Structures are given as C-alpha cells and as structure tokens.
Amino acid sequence: MEHVIAATGYSAAGLRVLLREQAFRHELVVGGLIIATHLAIGVSALFIAGQFLIIAMLLAAEALNTAIEKIVDRLSPERSAFARDAKDLGSAAVFFIIIANAIFAILAWLSNVA
C-alpha cells in the first residue's frame, strides 16, 4: 500500500509539472471542447468513451514528450542533431495522436448525422 501512495504522489507531482506546459493545457482545453461538442450533439456513449481514451493517450504522450525534452535539455544544452532528433520524435508522437483524436471526433460527429 505504501508503494501505491508513493506512486500517486509522484503522478500528482508530474501532473503539476505538466500543468505548467502550455501545450498540455491547450490539449486539455481542446479535449474538453471535443467532449462537450459530443455531448451537445448527442454522440453515443461508446464514441465519447473512445474519445476519452484517445485524449488520455494524447496527454500521456505529451507527458512523455515533456520528459524527453527535459532530459535532452539537461544532457545536451548545446544545439546538436541528437537533441533536435530526440525532441522532434517526441513531437511527432504527440502529432500522430492529435491526428487520431481529430479523425475520431469527425467520425463520431458524422455517425451522429447518419
């Protein structure tokens, strides 16, 4: 039980770090707007649950991307191909999940029209 309590504290501390990141805050807001739109137009509960899962994956990817950026900035403060590539790869992972969120939201909205 002590491990669970400690892990929860570490996660809360990580969330506090993420809340200082503008990209994370933007993703939270847009995710909330997507869910609100789903609710407003009557999208099915299954689509809403799916969207929550994809948004959670986006937020997790943003957390990992932020961790990569912090590690790279610490290990390679000078400009280098290593640092650029590591940061770009983290950014690409976030981008792919943003695209997945957009596609899923559009499919949910279209399914509601049909």
From TrEMBL:
Q: Which GO terms describe its molecular function?
A: kinase activity
CDD domains given in the database record: DAGK_IM (cd14264)
For the keyword Lipid biosynthesis, the answer is yes
Cofactor section: Mg(2+)
What are the alphabetically sorted keywords of the record? ATP-binding, Cell inner membrane, Cell membrane, Kinase, Lipid biosynthesis, Lipid metabolism, Magnesium, Membrane, Metal-binding, Nucleotide-binding, Phospholipid biosynthesis, Phospholipid metabolism, Transferase, Transmembrane, Transmembrane helix
Q: From the record, give the transmembrane residue ranges.
A: 28-61, 89-110
Which coarse location class applies to the principal site listed for this UniProt protein?
membrane
Quote the subcellular location field of this record. Answer: Cell inner membrane
For this protein, the record's PANTHER family field holds: DIACYLGLYCEROL KINASE
Family that this chain belongs to: Belongs to the bacterial diacylglycerol kinase family.
Q: What is the protein name for this chain?
A: Diacylglycerol kinase
Q: Which organism is it from?
A: Jiella pelagia
